[in-house]
Amino acid sequence: MIRHLLSGGDVDADTATLILDTATEMATVAGREVKKLPALRGRTVVNLFYEDSTRTRISFEAAAKRLSADVINFSAKGSSVAKGESLKDTALTLQAMGADAVVVRHPASGAPHRLANWVDGSVVNAGDGTHEHPTQALLDAYTMRSRLGRLAGLHVAVVGDVLHSRVARSNVLLLSTLGAKVTLVGPPTLIPVDIAQALAPGIGVSYDLDAVLPNVDVVMMLRVQRERMNDSYFPSAREYARRYGLDVPRMRRLPEHAIVMHPGPMNRGMEIAPEVADSPRSTIVEQVANGVSVRMAVLYLLLGGNNL
Ligand code: ASP
Predict the structure, then answer these.
(1) Strands 259-261 and 218-221, how do they pair?
(2) 307 alpha carbon to ligand 1 midpoint, in Å?
(3) Is this structure's pTM higher than 0.90?
(4) Which of 49, 55, 128, 167 to mutate to test ligand 1, by most ligand atoms within 8 A of the CB atom?
(5) Would residue 186 count as lying in a domain?
(6) Is the pLDDT of residue 15 over 50?
(7) How far is the CA of 221 from the centre of ligand 1 (A)?
(8) Any domain includes 8
(9) How many domains does the chain have?
(10) pLDDT (tens digit, 9 = 90+) per residue, 80-136?
(11) 124 contacts 103 by C-beta, under 8 angstroms
């Protein structure tokens, strides 16, 4: 097993399958009256969040607690980080406290990689800038596998603000490893030139959502990340929704079995219409539930837990 999980490209097909299979076992714990396993008793997991998060932070906390680990939640606001303490000094503090795993979210791409050089424990990237978010890709793969029964050969359209999306990058890497076909769809301003080839061979690019929809098994809508935009990438929110928003008429173009995904948080009415987000094809709530099982599997396997 790998020591850190920093990128969707860190796991080969066997490791990814082991994580997904372990997550399937972990999911049975959620159905029990006592939702707890002793596997990581006595181990310490630190959640180090320098950027806002709802789902991911709660999900990692729930995952570590269900495995009986001691959990320390550290958020940059209200800590010495606000006084200018560097990431390295924070890392040394965590090291001194004996953290077995550090789950880190940071606005700077590459921060988790730096951290991995400074601590003895395992580092899990919970989102670094516009770069990667590997556990999101794993929970997305888990959701696709449980809804559609397989990953190899699936055609997945990843739609929208690819430029700013760490979810897109990690998904492209992992899905390619697992044998799915990926097409990136969005306005040319939000699909970086050469990104497809740079990430993995065989990735498709299209600027025409209507043309792609009838041919996919999965459509993954990305949030338009206005907080990371310091330029105007499209004329208006209305125009964006008209060309690239998934509304009900567009959803009808999908094959009957196809599913609709979104990592959250959603801009309802922009990249996704509320009726689509709440439709039976949507896996958005399932993705959140699956996130806990997948993060349990990741922590368990990285920390070499026992007593499963
Ligand atoms: N929650 C995801 C992330 O942190 C997606 C998003 O923010 O749009 O990357």
Answers:
(1) parallel
(2) 33
(3) yes
(4) 167
(5) yes
(6) yes
(7) 11
(8) no
(9) 2
(10) 776 767 889 988 888 888 899 999 999 999 999 999 999 999 999 999 999 999 999
(11) yes
